[in-house]
Amino acid sequence: MTSHEKINELRSQLELFLERLDHLDPEKTSVEDVDQLIQMIEKIEKELG
């Protein structure tokens, strides 16, 4: 994967993460929801490394 493709993929993943974060209702968010978000960030971090 080229650097440009990697950047586009990371951008796409970050947009998905932010979209999910924006749609969370703090009153209804479960531990599982937060765990999924953390897993998304860990995946992004792993791809950057």
Automatic annotation (TrEMBL):
<dbReference type="InterPro" id="IPR047670">
    <property type="entry name" value="YfjT-like"/>
</dbReference>
<protein>
    <recommendedName>
        <fullName>Spo0E like sporulation regulatory protein</fullName>
    </recommendedName>
</protein>
